[in-house]
Amino acid sequence: MNRNRPAFTLLEIILYVFVFGVLSVALYNFGNISFRTNAYSQSVAEVELSGSALMLKIVDEINRAAANGGVNYPGPGLASSSLSLLSQVSSSNPIIFSLNNGAMMMKEGASSSLALSSNRVRVSDLSFANLGTASSTVLQINFMVATNNSDGIKEYNYSRVFTSAANTLQR
User: Fold this and answer.
1) Sequence-ordered list of residues with C-beta below 8 angstroms from that of 128, at least 6 positions apart, any chain
2) What is the pLDDT of residues 122-140, one digit of tens each?
3) The pTM is what?
4) Strand partners for 104
5) Pick from 134, 122, 109, 127: which is nearest to 165 by CA?
6) Does the CA dihedral 76-78-83-84 come out positive or negative?
7) Beta bridge partners of 103
8) Measured torsion, CA atoms of residues 53, 137, 70, 47, in degrees rounded to the nearest 10
């Protein structure tokens, strides 16, 4: 029996296992941090894009509302959680924006309500304030958009309040 052949000693094996363990823990932590950062970034992007698109749609409809009596409700000096507009196309009257179970809804005329927001976000605290007078209409729009985080994972929690103002364009 030849005892001079090269082999690993017990100390070398323990050292290799320790180094492999340290590297494994470091890679796991790096992957975990990367996943959490990516999840949070996706939540922020979803809220920001959804909120901006909703605000753009509302402001666009207000701007296109008929200049004479374009806003049914809220009247001058009043605030409401829904908005009713008169369209220049009579078949679309009235255009109503409201909330229903965390979704922003839009209803045109006799058609059924259409959800403008996706099921990945919740919209809340919707308010319209008519800051105008009888001769001019200026509407302040406020709402909050948050990720729909039913699992309660903290990386998916993000919300933002969107505020803007719009008026009916004089044609």
Assistant:
1) 74, 79, 80, 81, 82, 83, 97, 139, 140, 141, 142
2) 999 999 998 877 777 788 9
3) 0.76
4) 99
5) 127
6) negative
7) 100
8) 10
